[in-house]
């Protein structure tokens, strides 16, 4: 009986070590040393998190005790991020209307005058 327990324990240890080695190999494949591709990888991760942020907040909120407090903090951070994005979009529209749109208008006016 003792030998059976020992063999079962050795099997569990071997499985855990094998899983750890597999996870270490996967992490080695995922972590990229090149700064450009690391930036691409981080951007993809950030976009996936941004796309699924509402479900992530709902999942954290379902955790008892501290989940509600953490979800509230995530909700506030999400609202701040939405406000910043809206403000930056408004600023981009302002810059575009003062530069690119004026240039396009000037080119069209010049073209009409030359074709005139």
List the defining traits of the structure above.
116 residues, mainly alpha, 90% helix
Account of the protein in words:
With 116 residues, this protein is mostly helical. It has helices at 2-30, 35-51, 53-61, 66-98, 100-115. The chain starts with a helix and ends with a helix.
| DSSP helical segment count | 5
Distance between the first and last residues' Cα = 102 Å
Overall pLDDT metric: 87
- What portion of the residues fall into strands of 2 or more residues? under 5%
Short description:
With 116 residues, the protein is mostly helical. The chain has helices spanning 2-30, 35-51, 53-61, 66-98, 100-115. The mean pLDDT is 87.
Secondary-structure map:
Blueprint: H1 2-30, H2 35-51, H3 53-61, H4 66-98, H5 100-115
């Amino acid at each position: 009986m003792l030998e059976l327990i020992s063999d079962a324990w050795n099997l569990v240890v071997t499985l855990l070590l094998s899983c750890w080695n597999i996870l270490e190999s996967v992490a080695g494949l995922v972590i990229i040393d090149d700064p450009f591709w690391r930036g691409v990888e981080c951007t993809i991760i950030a976009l996936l998190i941004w796309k699924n942020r509402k479900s992530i907040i709902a999942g954290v909120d379902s955790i008892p005790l501290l989940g509600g407090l953490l979800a509230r903090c995530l909700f506030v951070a999400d609202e701040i991020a939405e406000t910043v994005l809206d403000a930056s979009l408004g600023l981009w529209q302002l810059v575009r209307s003062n530069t690119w749109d004026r240039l396009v208008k000037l080119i069209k006016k010049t073209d009409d005058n030359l074709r005139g």
